[in-house]
Amino acid sequence: MIHFFLGQSDEVFVLQTEQSLSPPNITKLQWLFGGAKLQTEAALSGFFVGPRAAMITPWSTNAVEITQNMDIQDIIRIEEFKKVNADFSGYDPMLSQKYENIGQEVFTINIKPEAIIEVADIAAYNKQEGLSLSDEEVDYLNSLAKKLERPLTDSEVFGFSQVNSEHCRHKIFNGKFVIDGEEQPTSLFKLIRKTSEANPNDIVSAYKDNVAFIKGPVVQQFAPKRADVPDYYATSDFESVISLKAETHNFPTTVEPFNGAATGSGGEIRDRLAGGQGSLPLAGTAVYMTALSRLEEGRAWEQGVEERKWLYQTPMDILIKASNGATDFGNKFGQPLITGSVLTFEHEENDRKLGFDKVIMLAGGVGYGKASQAQKKKPQEGDNIVILGGENYRIGMGGAAVSSADTGEHGSGIELNAIQRSNPEMQKRAANAVRGMVESDHNTIVSIHDHGAGGHLNCLSELVEETGGLINLDKLPVGDPTLSAKEIIGNESQERMGLVIGNEHIETLQKIADRERSPMYTVGKVTGDHRFTFKSETTGAKPMDFALEDMFGSSPKVVMEDQKIDRKYQSVDYDKTQLSSYLEQVLQLEAVASKDWLTNKVDRCV
Question: Do 358 and 414 reside in the same domain of the chain?
Fold first, then answer.
């Protein structure tokens, strides 16, 4: 049954209930909705923007929980709609839709999930889905299908592309470089690693976990004695490690700056939750680099480069919306964003244009953990595979692979579909559950990874990379009943953590998660058979069933061949009499000028 509560402005609260509302509950709900009045009509006419029928929003989940705490039962879903004009288009089509009239069928879904597809032509499927697989990888998957004597499923081809994307596996960074016909003695990644090999100093862990750890001081912890029950706070000293992390989120921020930067910050925070057996974030940083902003007219250095048409967002839009997204996530999660930088650049010479067209959005931060928990343990056969956090939605499909391609290489539909959406409130719940384990006297987390690029595919496969695991497809939480098997296991719905924990400790984690109101799902087992399998216990279907060596160990090595080009640029001549003008221009550069527009819109001491 659908009920409508009309607010004083244009908002409409739409409730789905199992039965009629009682007068006392109507009074409570009208108070909860700020005085919105229950409408007697069974339908409302006009145009409205609201959530997609198949996608229960995080806001709805929280709102229903609040009503349950108010002793209002039988409410299934609550969503907020806005009344709009017929030509209104200012909404995110991945999350919302425009309705003409809303009635009792507003949340009815007549779409069935797509069946598992056997992929006969991998090359065509790669192009159709924008998976960014190289010709060598397509050949490898064709040979794998012959070895297995069966066609690969859509989940397997899609999963291979995500898990082995540049974003997840650093194929180019680990690849072989041939310059001017001469093979280089080392890869880019080995060059970076040399710094820590030559100067290990206080490094505890680097290049093998979600974060790097360096030795920290002895610090005093102030926390409850136990996190699974109400208890008194106590102090205790421990040897600490300092966590360090920075990563870019360029493609998503280029396409949709607010959510791209928000999930960039959120994903980096989750990385600092997933160091060793668990670690805790403290403070963040953000860096933005775009083409020239053209913030004001008459800036001499911008007049020498003709402004171009942008595929998705202008540089100014990106600078404003991306910084809004990163700071918004930090505020809602409870992490201050305390430092960062901005750079805008374009240059045109000799018919070449240089600039940050695919923007740089770097999220980073520091945190801490306990030295005794700084290394992950090896999962054992029979251990539980657990997920903390939210449900699966059709969000971020293919984000890992698409982010490894040039922006604009794939259709806008594929690229928009690859952008994640943020839910910092849910991430806070999961983070608090992890914190309860980290701060306890005996942290029983065996291993932990965050859900980001590649979704369950990447997170859960990393958890069992040394052992193998069986995931029950039916146990994975689904917020959108129209999702196919491929979409359930590959979506990048954010704010989730994957853990391995022993049978004897699962109850303790469940109690902590319940106290923090973090959803928790036991979705599989560590097997020890060195296979990674998703299986529906209901139907017996296996959308994905790979040997780990086929999934990770045998993909072709990337070879990059290039030639050195000797570029010639005009020398720069300065006029000493124009020093004052030069200085004035330099002080207007975003990299030099005041950053009040970044710092004053956010609470920097959350």
Answer: no
